[in-house]
Amino acid sequence: xxxxxxxxxxxxxxxxxxxxxxxxxxxxxxxxxxQVVMTANAQRFITPLTLQVLSGQPVCTDLFDLEFxxxxxxxxxxxxxxxxxxxxxxxxxxxxxxxxxxxDFLTTVLLATTAPVLACPSMNxxxxxxxxTQRNLEQLRNMGTHVLGPGLGTLARKEEGIGRLPELSEILxxxxxxxxxxxxxxxxxxxxxxxxxxHFDAVRFISNPSTGRMGYALAAVALRRxxxxxxxxxxxxxxxxxxxxxxxxxxxxEMRDAVLEVAPGTDAIVMAAAVSDxxxxxxxxxxxxxxxxxxxxxxxxxxxxxxxxGQSRGASSRPVLVGFAAETENLIENARExxxxxxxxxxxxxxxxxxxxxxxxxxxxxxxxxxxxxxTEFPCMAKEEVAVQVFDRIERLLLQETHGE
Length: 405
Ligand code: CTP
Hints:
single chain; Rossmann fold; 2 domains; 8-stranded mixed sheet; elongated
């Protein structure tokens, strides 16, 4: 989403200004072209040179710099921006913005730009809670400025409270959402993710190495496009994307209950979870002690959640149903069988034996099989890009339905 985009990063003078260096690095890594603009006070916390090296572009600091104005000019900087991020946005900067004051490079550019603005406030808790700051933020929100945070936690001088700059990953995600067309607005999407844990005693279970990365990427992409997203996840080390309705579960049976509760009324369901097909018949309430003998654990069948959804949908085209097929052999045949058996619209098949594919990986190399027999092959891609392909296809199906109705 940020690839090839011109992002203007405005930095004002708060202690969190040091984090702006890392934010520039992350934006550049995402493929954005970053123009940094700093207030005079921001330069007391972090040097323009640092940001210039990281962004690869001259940093704007002085409205009356004769050389810069003759070559580029502040109006051109304002015009070139496709998104403005203010991080940190101090109480002073927010106050000036709300009042329409333009007395330095940054505030002048803010009046001159037509790009969306994402303000990330960061300040002392008392300053944030001050009615002037609250009024200014309210006014800015009403006028269309996107405001993210601030977060809770440790502030400068070891104080605790509200006022921290939001996590950089959250800033990036918000930036992506602002730049994404809201093609799924008004739609409800359910995504399942992660492994399931099937306990056989109080502390031991049967599971698989899934981390939930694919499912969390799917949820993030749907949220970005404006959908209301329920994420039903088995145990995962990942943070659910902000704005998602999160339902943590452990076992396949818990996942089935949560899915069946949320499913009615959804427009699309994507089952990316690696659900255990079996569970131990008996679960000891204590930790099993070691004996001199072997331990036998009898496994019984778990419900097939996706098959249940396919059955209950019958001949209806809603919700759009998408499955994943993780295989180690006969990829196409096995995936096609699952597609038909579970009554899906399409299935995303990946070969676990291939490098860059499968569990706990950043990437995935997939083939998408649909009901008409078509197979689309993709190169090895980031899981987020796979998620983009999945939702492009879901949107096409939703559109067909709308037109067909
Ligand atoms: N799935 C499910 N419930 C299960 C097992 C799988 O909903 N108990 C879903 C998965 O989330 C996935 C699809 O069904 O979207 C295929 O899962 P997979 O594990 O590849 O296949 P299985 O149907 O379990 O068959 P097998 O393990 O024999 O390959």
